[in-house]
Fold this sequence. Notes:
Number of strands: 21
Helix content: 25-40%
Low-confidence stretches: 1-13, 26-40, 315-319
CATH topology of the domain at 109-245: L,D-transpeptidase catalytic domain-like
Radius of gyration: 25 Å
Strand content: 25-35%
Structural class: alpha+beta
CATH architecture of the domain at 109-245: Beta Barrel
Largest sheet: 8 strands, mixed
CATH class of the domain at 109-245: Mainly Beta
Strand order of the largest sheet: 9-8-7-18-11-14-15-17
Shape: globular
Number of helices: 7
CATH superfamily of the domain at 109-245: L,D-transpeptidase catalytic domain-like
Amino acid sequence: MRQAHGVARIHPDNKSTQMILLASRLLACLLAGFSLAALANDLPPLSHQVTGGDSEYIVQPGDFMIAIGARFGLPPPLLAQDNAVPYAALIYPGQRFRIHNPHIVPATLDDGLLINIPQRMLFHFSQGRLLDAYPVGLGKPATHTPRGEFEIVSRVKNKTWVVPTSIQEEMRREGKVVRLEVPPGPDNPLGTHWLGLSVWGYGIHGTIAPSSVYQFRSHGCIRLHPDDIAELFERTWVGQTGQLVYQPVLLAVTEDGRILLEVHPDIYNKSVDPASIVRDMAEAHGLSQAIDWPRANEVIAAQDGLARDVSRLPRNGVKGTP
Length: 322
């Protein structure tokens, strides 16, 4: 065997060497294929669906920036920025706000509820079609909302809140009146609708503090705006299933070929590296050359929680590999 310009030349009569090299190349290709498949299986799915978008909202009496952001699943500082209004400015009834709140749908279920914890969004599916998407409030970093599959085991209107022992202890530490139960009414933090989950002690419910939606302020339950939970309540049933997932990085290719990226903070400190996830997803789905990486890096750094266009080429029909 001789070397020429760093390339191994094979003598025609050295068939055994040829076979060994051929086998090693085939093995390398197979291993590369298996590695890519394993990588794709460990990554979040590539989405093809986006909810939200652009609309107009007329400010109502009693509104304030945080409450409007909570209603539409939009960080209040971005709401202020999009409308050229100082974040601390007073707003007044009749004022018109542009609402820009696109969110990538993490995955598609045949039926049921999908809640993405870092995204603070609940998605309701029926027969493989997205029916609704709602902003939700979730558990504080000290009182996580758990991940995993669940089933709705009860549906109750005007439920009495039986205060958990841990929250009673919290009340005691904070010098509050310790309550064992809170009857239905304006002081009941569950609001007027309760969907009990198979994950013991947890539920999807309303709230008496609508501005707390789209934040991490609960003791682990999932809270919705009163209007949203009333609507969801009527469309769900005992036995319906769902999933709670933890996916701070979402990548989508839309029908018109745009590549969208949405990044959220790793609120529960799960050691998520968004830059690595984005690059691995792009490689796994054949999108690396179609992404504007300087723009993608800006989105990763900002982690502002909205779907942003990171396409390198204009709407070129890129679909990504399934």
